[in-house]
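Please, structure for the following, as tokens.
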Amino acid sequence: MKIRILVCVCTLIFIAGLPFSSEGAKRKKPVPRLDEQIAAAKLREDFAVLREALEKAHPSLYLYTSKEKFDELFDATTKSFDKPLTRKEFYLRVAPVVEMVKCGHTYFDFPPKLLNQLSREEGLFPLPVFFLNRKAYVDLEDEDIPLGAELISINKQPTAEVLAKLLPYLRSDGYNQTMKYRMLADEFALHYRLLFGTSKEYQIQYIPFGKKEPVTVRLPALSGSKLQKRLVNRHSAKGKFKNFQFKWIEKDVGLLSVNSFDFGLRKKGRQRYRGFLKETFEAISEQAEAKHLIVDVRFNEGGYIGHDATLFSYLAQEPFRENESAVAKLIDIPLEKYQDKKEFFKGVEKAIEKSLAKEFKKAPDGLFHLIDEKNKVSQPKRFGFKGHIYILTSGWTHSGGAVVCSMALNNDNVTFIGQETGGGHEYYTAGNMVLYTLPNTLCQVEVPMILYRNEIPENSFPKGSGIIPKHQVVQTQKDFISGEDTVMQFALELIRKSKP
């Protein structure tokens, strides 16, 4: 689920200096309805567009699910559209098929206006939740249910059964689950509403921390606006993150937090980031006692390509490439008439295609491969860190955040701590994302065009997994309630034990 904020720009149209009458003015389009019935033929048409977009453009469609399996899924889903369905029913039928791509950059969603309306409606599940070891806990203080209480059931349905039905609608790379649970913590009420509907109140069974007997209460539902306030103020909320920062924890232990690479393409932003890294690592190199560096990328979902390699150049032990290879199925973007016009405004498509044509060349295997000139060898920085590095990861570590971790697999001075990354250890899609709007349901599908393969040691992890830390550490229920950073404390204790 991807909720976007739309900015509407209103313009007046004049003829001979006079505006159109209100009757002639272009009427504002109504918000698409969740319960709108759509004819079977139109559903099949929409699904055919989605299928064609995936089959023509997605570079890793068959990486985790075979072509035979996808053909079977596509054909069976098409045949299932034999009668009118609501927009909601169409979504619930199609979204799990798209999830079988198992790509964190591929998503299927409702029209943006409908998503915005759903996020504001009444009757939503009233509690923010947080997941630890695949169990749901209350993520709010000073309410009827105590902070950190484990949720056992909702409306008499066991929470484990609820989660099993929700997870197929959440995306991640490969067979990873940690990213799904992280996303679900942010979007639980919306996904619950789509599968189970709204209620005036919810019967919730829970077990308070330190207790054994379950307690049952009934809580009134909330509107989306009130729930949003609770989400902002939930216990686990960290406030506004800085994209990057550094501090000394001890005289020989530094903490570098890189929470995002999504700070724009503008020259000023790039210069600030590069300047920060240069100043930070020069300062570290001047401190003779600095033997340990913690790099925290637990909240780094990626961003713009290249920022990951810039960071790793200060951690690398040997010359490296940003990726081993990059391929695309095609360089001409297909299905132009269905491209979202807000993102693919005039000239964008041609600019992207021109860029792809310069950077990719067709090979004997029929795919377009990134040319060597665009995948140059980078050298470790002169002031790069030479001591021991501890990289903290979580299910939010995705895209560029996970790429840094994959690069670090080639080092012998790196220890990973935390949870499996949401991003795959070997493959990831990125580059140019094409957003399509289906003609009848107005649902949207985003398709990435480039598949990257990381340079990693052979047989690092099973296919389809993220980077699995040597020390898999999950916050305990007790630490969650007290706000203790279990993963950070584990890293510091590991460092202390390593000292002579």
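Residues 12 and 19 are 7 Å apart (CA to CA). Residues 2-26 have pLDDT under 50 and may be disordered.
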